[in-house]
Amino acid sequence: MNILHQRLSAIGDLPDNQVWGLVRTLLDEALNGAPFTRAEVLMEFGCIAPFYEDSEHEKLAKLARRTLRITSGKALIEKLLAEHDGKPEGVELSNRTGSLFAVLLPDASSPGKVRASLFDENGFFSHITRADYREVLQEIVEDGYRYPAPGALERCFAKESFNKWQRVRH
User: Fold this and answer.
1) 52 touches 19 (CB < 8 A)
2) CB within 8 A of 123, min separation 6: which ones?
3) How many CB atoms lie within 10 A of CB 118?
């Protein structure tokens, strides 16, 4: 049993504020020469993070959600790249609540690069351009876009609010 697992194994019996304190201590120790890295702390905490997503301790809940985004995101990225032969063009993802979306496309304004266009029911609000699909996926998955949402753009586009906002912006 490694040192991180040993130190985190007693977490189940601790109140949330003490869990927060222990995880913060481990993250700080990782920066100060401990025999483990911050990434290893987050991976180990990731095993129990689902139990703390809705904690009343705001900082612990935020760390749990962030840890889950990072740890579960790697598997999602690999799955999407494999399913689409490395080019998940047209794939649509949503945030946890299904209120924000991203669609992956080649970037028309930067040949050879790819883009995640971000939108909601009111229209497009941002985009992220990167060198390849892996890079753009890493960024949007870490931002919480990790739930498949096929047809989201078509459904939003059909709404009057989407079309109205786009007409106002252009």
Assistant:
1) yes
2) 156, 161, 162, 163, 165, 166, 169
3) 18
Residue type present at position 30: A
Distances (CA, A) of 73 to 3, 9, 28, 52, 103: 25, 24, 24, 18, 16
Strands 92-94, 123-130: pairing is unpaired
Crossing angle of helices 133-142 and 58-83, rounded to 10°: 150
Q: Which of 62-77 are b and which e, b meaning 16 or more Cβ less than 10 Å from the residue's Cβ?
A: ebbbebbbbbebeebb
Place of tokens 């962030």: 66
Q: How far apart are CA 158 and CA 19, in angstroms?
A: 46
Is 35 within 8 Å of 3 (Cβ atoms)?
Answer: yes
102/90 Cα distance (integer angstroms): 10
Q: What is the pTM (predicted TM-score) of this model?
A: 0.61
Q: What mean pLDDT is predicted for residues 5-20? A: 86
**61-107: pLDDT as tens digits:** 999 998 887 777 887 898 899 999 999 999 999 998 899 999 999 99
Q: How many CB atoms lie within 10 A of CB 2?
A: 11
